Amino acid sequence: MYIAASRSSDVAAGTERKAGLRRVSANVVALGAVSLVTDISSEMVTAVLPLYLVLGLGLNPLQFGLLDGLYAGATAVVRVLGGHLADRWRRLKAVAGFGYGLSAVCKLGLVAAGSSVAAIGVVLAADRTGKGLRTAPRDALISLSSEPATLGRSFGVHRAMDTVGAFLGPLVAMAVLALSLGSYPSVFFTSFCIAAIAVLLLVLFVRDRPAAVDRAAVSVRAALGLLRERGFRRVAVWAALLGFVTLGDSFVYLVLQRRWDVAATFFPLLPLGTAAVYLVLAVPLGKLADRIGRWPVFLGGHVALVAALIALCGPVSGFWLAALALGLHGVFYAATDGVLMAAAGPLVPADLRATGLAVVQTGQAAARMLSSVLFGLAWTLWDLQPAVLVAAGALAVVALGAAFARPVRT
């Protein structure tokens, strides 16, 4: 009788454990809803900004590369600070909320900046500062709200919800442009209103999940000590190297616009191709990463980006190649964005989770800032096609090196 009861208990425990693995916590879903609404707001701006700066204000590729690098890299200087403060104060939600609020206010700043490139640069830097402050605490909340074995799935669900917003953002931007007869300030103001709703959702529905540790244990020395851990250091370094040879989204869409002469009216729709594929594949690739390993899936995403760049500037031209490039761009994001955080999370103690993830994100952001500037310079000096093909070759070489290094076994 005792043996039967014991077996019954084991079966029940196993069933409960499997059921738990299939679930994603309510906190992850709430954070996904916040990101969904926020991404509608941010992608409205992202969808029209390249066209506004290049065609509307007449910036050349190098000037745009500097602004795009600022847009991508401003997060680098505050990610570690945001993660460290969130861990130190044990207020992950509060620090993330401040970042979301700052980015929301910056949408009004774009309205006030008008056609001043310098003012736009300052506002974009502040907007990305908000993103830098919120990203690591948000991802730490996802990680701490999930079972270790299902981190890939949890991040996949979050990124899928986030991508719904990325899909809707350009459509909303296009609708606002049509209704306002091409008024970019109208797009920016509508973006602010939507971002404010996201902040409200965060306040009402997201629960804080700080680690139960003494604040004194979360020090700058402890944060720097993370880089002495061989596994974590290798992940951070290879992620930064791959970021350095990764072409920014804005340049991908500008290449598409130039190569296929996409009309200005339809330019905001280009990110939809990326978003649609990302939305479909984020959860399946997250599950695959949990099953076969997160680093192979992460590198597979970079291989997809190499193929996308070759399709963009190869010798053959056709609409189907443009569609293929956008699809591969979506595969790249589905296989890398959340998967990298799922790979790095278990390498960091719970009390330093936000700080550790911020270190990885900072390396990537700083590297991508340099990448945007250098690609803008290469485009200016060499023209479009050679610059893209050199970028594709560099990415292929670094991805191959990362495959041999393989710093993560999970």
Automatic annotation (TrEMBL):
SUPFAM superfamilies for this protein: MFS general substrate transporter
Record-level GO cellular component terms: plasma membrane
CDD domains in UniProt: MFS_MJ1317_like
PROSITE patterns according to UniProt: MFS (PS50850)
UniProt subcellular location: Cell membrane
Superkingdom as given in the UniProt entry: Bacteria
Transmembrane segments: 20-38, 69-86, 98-126, 187-206, 235-256, 262-283, 388-405
UniProt cross-references to InterPro entries, sorted A to Z: MFS, MFS_dom, MFS_trans_sf
Membrane topology: Multi-pass membrane protein
MF-aspect GO terms: transmembrane transporter activity
Pfam family of the protein (one): MFS_1
Domain Major facilitator superfamily (MFS) profile intervals: 27-410
Keyword terms of this UniProt record: Membrane, Transmembrane, Transmembrane helix
Descriptive protein name: MFS transporter
